[in-house]
Prior knowledge:
Blueprint lengths: L5 H31 L5 H15 L5 H9 L8 H20 L6 H17 L6 H33 L5 H41 L11 H17 L2 H10 L5 H21 L5 H15 L7 H29 L3 H22 L18 H9 L5 E3 L5 E3 L22
Antiparallel strand pairs: 1-2
Helix pairs in contact: 1-2, 1-4, 1-7, 1-8, 1-9, 1-11, 2-7, 2-8, 3-7, 4-5, 4-12, 4-13, 5-12, 6-10, 6-11, 7-8, 7-10, 10-11
Amino acid sequence: MESFSLILAIVVVTALAFDFTNGFHDTANAMATTISTGALKPKVAVAMSAVLNLVGAFLSVEVANTISKGLVDETGIRPEVIFAALVGAILWNLLTWLVGLPSSSSHALMGGLIGATIASAGTGAVHGDVLVTKVLLPAVAAPIVAGVAAMFATRLSYTLGRKADGKAAEKGYRVGQIASAGLVSLAHGTNDAQKTMGIITLALVAGGVVAPDSDPPTWVILSAGLAIALGTYLGGWRIIRTMGKGLTDLQPQQGFAAQTSAATVILASSHLGFSLSTTHSVSGSVMGAGLGRKGGVVRWSTATRMFVAWGLTLPAAALVGALAEYVTGFGDWGTAVVAVFLVASSAAIWKVSRREVVDHSNVNEVEEPPGVVTTAIAVVTPPPASVPAADGLSATIAAPAPAPVAATPEPAAPPAAV
């Protein structure tokens, strides 16, 4: 086996950087509802999620094997291809984090890998059957299954708790929500941390460090778990705000139902080796929980923006990955250009994010923009006229009432005689 080359070291570091962005990008999946309902304080929630993500990274390698052995033909992959794939995934993660949209880090990674692989070795190097059965179909099915399960679980929770003592029931649901949020964090570690393990293992195979069809080495599992845990602890507060308050307003019963449904779907998919998006599962369960409560609503303007981001994730990351692979094909200087572009773009996105800081102190403060119908009505409806009053305040003047029809004047009486 060959020793570590410079490009291979760059790929491993970049993969861990992606894993870090995956952590703070997907913190909302585990803890957004717990924070929004007040079950846990923000800092405590992200610390708990970070520890459980690290533990979950050691529970399974099925998803890692799907990435490293199943999605693309590993025999024709160069380390530069993996690097280009990671560039596409990282930039998409940072852009969607900047605008607060919970898109899929998993699909960003796979989109970048597919685009870079096609640019390097052609479409034949991508295993279409694995892409459809273990990536695309779960992407469609996961939010639907989790949403329907959360909706019925919410209705069941309210039905069973109708006669229970209000404060006691609410306290019980908060405890259950904390437990289910911990389960989602554990499931996130078993699914998303493994994607980075798989991509690093694929790079090691491409660089000749490990044999083909090898499982991830122990140091890869540990480093990937630590990277995603650190990113989770820092917290992607922008996406937590969108997931916890931007989609719907959740009560403890709804938060418990949403988290439990999402955790069940994620753990089942990890066991089957499906490269599932935890973002899709949790978002679907949150919307289902919002619809499950009588009088509950889902803010479809936010949901629509989120759906658009989901649809763009794979092709956008694939396009950036393909372009990055094209530039790295010019040799070492091309790889250096792509690396500088990645660092400069990441720094620019971070600088823009400082214009409006979102952190644990204001994560639950959100104002939903008006919908299309509300905006249209406001445009066509003229505002009432107002004039400044004597005290300097503005007074609204009602429209004048129509003047009554004047009656025919009677003849004046003759003047009295003097």
